[in-house]
Amino acid sequence: MQELIRRRRQAGFVGRQSELGDFRGNFSAAEEQRRFLFSIYGDAGVGKTLLTEQFQRVAREEAGALTARADESSDSLAATLEALVGQLAPKGAAKAFDKALAAHRQQLREAQNVPDLAAAEGPSATGRIAAGVGLAVAQSMPVVGPLASVVTAQEVSQAASRVGSALAERAWNTDSMPLTPAAALSGPFVDLLRRLSGDAPWLALFFDTYERTEVFLGKWLLDLVGGRYGDLPANLVLTVAGQRRLHPGIWAPYLGAITYLPLQPFTDEEARLLLAARGITTEPVVEAILEMTGCLPVLVAMLAESRPADITAVSDHAGDAVDRFLRWEPPERHAAALACALPRVVNQDVMDVLLGEPVSRELYPWLRTLPFVQEDAGQVRFHDVVRTAMLRLERSRSPQRWRQRHHDLAGAWRSWREGLRMDERDGWWDPNWQDCTVEETYHLLCAYQEGALASALCAAVRAAEVGTVMARQLAEAMAQAGENSAAARVARLGASLAATVGDDARDCTDFLSMLLDDSRLDQTHRIAALAERAWLHQLANRLESCLADVDRVLQLQPDNADTLTRRGYVYRLMRRHHDALDDFHQVLAAAPDHVQALVFRGLTFETLGGDEAALQDFNHAVETAGEHLGARVHRGRLLRRKGHLARALADFDHAVEQHPESAWALVERAACLYHADRAVEALEAIERALELEDDTTYVHANHGFVLCRLGRLTDGVAALNRALDVEPENVWALTWRGWATGRLGHADAALDDLNRAVAMAPNDSWPSAARGWLYWAAGKPAQALPDLERAVVLEPDYEWAHLGLALTLLWLQRPTEAHEAFSRAADEWSRHAPYAQELADRLFDVLRRHYRRDDEVIRDAVHNAPVWIHQIGRWQSIRQFVLPLLRRSSLPLMRDSVRILRYARTVLRDHPDTGPLESNQLTVLADEVFDQLPQLDLGERG
Predict the structure, then answer these.
(1) Which residues does 468 contact at the CB level (< 8 Å), separation at least 6?
(2) Disulfide-capable partner of 208 in 71, 188, 631, 659 (CB 3.0 to 4.6 Å)?
(3) Backbone torsions φ then ψ of 375, nearest 5 degrees
(4) Nearest Cα to 321, choosing from 263, 258, 385?
(5) Cβ(695)–Cβ(725) below 8 Å
(6) How crowded is residue 163: how many other Cβ atoms within 10 Å of its Cβ?
(7) Residue 542 CB contacts under 8 Å (≥ 6 apart), including other chains
(8) pLDDT (tens digit, 9 = 90+) per residue, 577-615?
(9) Could you give the CA distance from residue 326 to residue 337 in angstroms, rounded to a whole number?
């Protein structure tokens, strides 16, 4: 018995026996009773890290587990996974993960090294304006009419954050952004876990200080457990330690497999055990320690290590407790510990700044052994409770020394940042540069309080450009500096800023608004803040607010070409096309080779029906910047729509060759290949785009769209489901899923989707038109009419909506109005071709003569054609219309079908510019019909 007691005392860990017992017993529990996730939670200083370390020891030494642990020292998902893999597998044993990590980092580097057309403006508004232009072009990709909304606010915002102001050249290619760390690394990580699971009885992963890492680990961990990245091995146990428990609502599906372990301060008995283990048994001393520490484990351990001999050695407040604890150390160590409490993180370099190299080299190993110091990866942090007390003591004893030391530390972090040899634009995307800047800001605020706020506000603007995580880190550093230096207003400002970018914040809009309200923000950074906020307003479709911010930038930067280009595109989004043209004309009058303005003016001309003017602008842009992705893709798209498929494919091939990682270029190329009757190659192109970006709405939605265009509606719906898993409120994908689901015969589910889409986008013509068509197909023309009328009001040139309206009016016995709507549809469909009216008359005559007698077949024919009519080749829709009529054994229907085919073939012969490749299937059908049914091959007059 005495030997057991001695061994336990030597182990140095007391208390928490119940928690240790739960964890230890889990390894021997029956499979149906085993828990795979432990949630340790409690206040700061309660001993979560110590217990996590004990759990890791038990797993490794008693259960034979392979273990790995990560904490806040890993400041991103990629860094966390790298740390875990480094502990689980020897160097070189995780080649697939290492390769994926290297590729991901290479993508990030490439994204940062994009030339900036507006480099002369420096890191001001122009970079952000160009990024705003990026979404604009992505939203202008009319592969399929309303495709713009597929690009989500959260996706583009995170992409723009990675590339920042360097997007002036590649802004419109938002879909060539690097994969997220989750998408790039999680699969190889799970594969490694499965491989290692056969090498040991257990795998145990530990995530400490989760309150600081949840912002980037929370969703990933939930997806990991949910199987999104593959099946986890059955012998895996996870432990998460943080100040808050894993939320039962979020983790509801897994509550039966989670053990919650709330930690409270030591009981008197546990605290006494710890003190006794350190040789402190004198009752008055024990009572004094228990009263002063409140049995908080970290403070109990700290004072126990100081081994006070009597009650006079135990102070009655934390500052004196720390001071008296250090009094047993030699004077140089006493001073060193107090000095090292000033920085938030201490390594050898930081200690050199504070103490000078000879002393720091001698004392750093000692500092790492202190009980209130936590070590990780070669650097240490003081426990928050202890550090706060030491800071208060140091500040009150010598305010001048306090200021000077923080001044020196700020200078050191600045010099280390400058040593990275990165300019500010690139630096804000580099983790090491970010860390240096945040720590420099912290120390400047500690030294000069409000006197350093102006520079801190400027840094906050740049942090907001990176994203909410970076903005929150800087704001929290500001708040902490205010608290530690007793600067109440600095602390309040930092806390208020941090509150605007909490866990539920979608972007930095409120953060930037608070910065803009502060008069201390200088003009350069005010412009940057306005440009960034305008970008975020645009992503959230708050176009009036976006326009107001861009106008404010123009007031500060009159006649700036990039800002005028940005405003022109905002006007485009607001459908104020002539205002947009005014801005583009002004830019190009002063700078005729401004590529962005050329591309956007071309898009505006195209929207207004000026294809030739649009083509001239696209040609000029390509001649000016031949490798420019947007110019190539938009010209190719226009050429494809006009039927010049060979020239269009040449542009898309060039774009893919020059930008092989562009999912956008691949998607557009797929559309062109489909038009050229090369469906297999089209699908290959879209699948290649999926390999590049398998976690974005844009690619999955386009995959679903291509599958639907190929008639694979079930597969198309599955792809659209994946798109909506990423972005449940994407109106375009939701509308397409509703339409395709309706085509599969699931009217109720289709109507649910379309009702949601209409409610979310009441001013979008596509959902209303789709729901109107669904009602018409279900034999409910009275319910279809309001939707289709609203669609043509919202978009007067929308031929598909006009066609649906014509059919609805015909079925409602209003033939004159129906014919008018049908003629409008045919005119828009043929782009005002000379044959449009006669074609409309012929088709409408077939409908009018047969829709009552042959309602079912006519409904099938016209319901088939609209799947394609406004999305792909014009003549393909005629083929889709005629086929159901030919399948019927009705001589009148067959005769009318042949008449339509003959007339269409004549038009194609007389008007070859309508698209010779896309019309191929129609002419083949006509030839086969005339060959097999010569008795129906009536003359043109017949």
Answers:
(1) 501, 505, 507, 508, 511
(2) 71
(3) -110, 140
(4) 385
(5) no
(6) 27
(7) none
(8) 999 999 999 999 999 999 999 999 999 999 888 999 999
(9) 8
* Residue type (1 letter), 432: N
Residue 545 contacts residue 537 (beta carbons within 8 Å) = yes
Rounded Cα distance between 938 and 891, Å, is: 13
Render pLDDT for 258-282 as a digit per residue (tens, 0 to 9).
999 998 888 888 888 888 888 888 8
Distance CA 262, CA 589 (A): 68
Pairwise CA distance, residues 40 & 48, whole Å: 7
DSSP state of 58: I
Question: CA angle, corner 339, sides to 338 and 342, nearest 5?
Answer: 100
Q: How would you class 69 by CB atoms within 10 Å of its CB: exposed for 0-12, middle for 13-18, buried for 19 or more?
A: buried
E strands present in 45-100: 66-70
Phi/psi for 232 (5° steps) reads -85, 150
Residue 322: C-alpha distances to residues 300, 302, 308, 362, 735 (Å) = 12, 8, 12, 22, 65
Strands (E), 435-518: none
Give, in degrees to the nearest 5, the angle at Cα 587 between 582 and 589.
Answer: 90
Work out the angle at residue 597's Cα, subtended by the Cα atoms of residues 595 and 602, and round it to the nearest 5 degrees.
95
Sheet holding 203-207, edge to edge: 66-70, 203-207, 236-242, 37-41, 258-262
Q: Which residues contact 731 (CB under 8 A, 6 or more apart)?
A: 146, 149, 757, 760, 761, 764, 766, 767
- Reading the block at residue 412, the tokens are 């050191």
Residue with tokens 């309200």: 517
Distance CA 266, CA 46 (A): 8
Task: Look at phi and psi of residue 449 and say left if phi exceeds 0, alpha if psi is from -120 to 50, else beta.
Answer: left
